[in-house]
Amino acid sequence: MSISNELIWGIVRDTSCHVLRRKQVGRSGMGPRGAEFTTEPNNLTGLNAWKYSGLANSKTIDLASAGEKGVVLTTKSTDKASVGKPAKALKKVTYTRDFRRIAKAIKKQTSETFYRSDLQKAALAKWSLIYASQQKMKAKKA
């Protein structure tokens, strides 16, 4: 028996152990509840939102640094055989090429395969941040 993603989101949205709430004092524009972040796995942006949720969506994408160079792209499997097996549900692929080719691979994985094209922009932004963190500091000219 499978449970709908909407039902999972309704349960997890407020009661998850991964939710971090930061109340803002004054006029912050974030509403009466303040900012809500999350530390859940497979959440690209860290925002507590249905679109980015790694727990409530059946298709998710995540990027993590692969050491000094490259990135690990993690996706949830949509195979019928791995639905009830959490150990086999995540597929991880490591990319260690240059910036442009990894960006092209991320685009291909998200939009060209019709996986989650709505997450393409966030995935490329996160890859850009990971790449910038992996670059060595250039020596200042004296």
Question: Mind sketching the topology for me?
Answer:
Blueprint: H1 5-15, E1 19-22, E2 35-38, E3 61-65, E4 71-76, E5 90-95, H2 99-112, H3 120-134
Antiparallel strand pairs: 1-2, 3-4, 4-5
Helix pairs in contact: 2-3
Textual characterization of the structure:
It is a single chain. The chain has helices spanning 5-15, 99-112, 120-134; strands spanning 19-22, 35-38, 61-65, 71-76, 90-95. With 142 residues, it is α+β, with helices and mostly antiparallel strands. It folds into two domains: 1-57, Enolase-like, domain 1 (2-Layer Sandwich), CATH 3.30.390.110; 58-136, Enolase-like, domain 1 (2-Layer Sandwich). The strands form two sheets. The chain has a three-stranded antiparallel β-sheet with strand order 3-4-5, covered by helices on one side. Strands 1-2 form a two-stranded antiparallel ribbon. A hairpin with a 5-residue loop joins strand 3 and strand 4 (71-76). The radius of gyration is 18 Å and the shape is globular.
In the sheet with the most strands, the strands line up as 3-4-5
CATH class of the largest domain: Alpha Beta
Please give the largest β-sheet.
Answer: 3 strands, antiparallel
CA radius of gyration:
18 Å
Total domains? 2
Question: Any idea of the CATH topology of the largest domain?
Answer: Enolase-like, domain 1
Q: Average the pLDDT over all residues and give the rounded result.
A: 84
Overall body shape: globular
Q: Stretches where pLDDT falls below 50 for ≥5 residues? A: none
**Beginning-to-end CA distance, first to last residue:** 67 Å
Structural class based on helices, strands and sheet pairing: alpha+beta
Percent in helix: 25-40%
Can you name the CATH architecture of the largest domain?
Answer: 2-Layer Sandwich
Q: How many extended strands?
A: 5
How do the SSEs run, as a string of H and E?
Answer: HEEEEEHH
Multimeric organization: single chain
* Beta-strand fraction estimate: 15-25%
Given the structure, what is the number of helices? 3
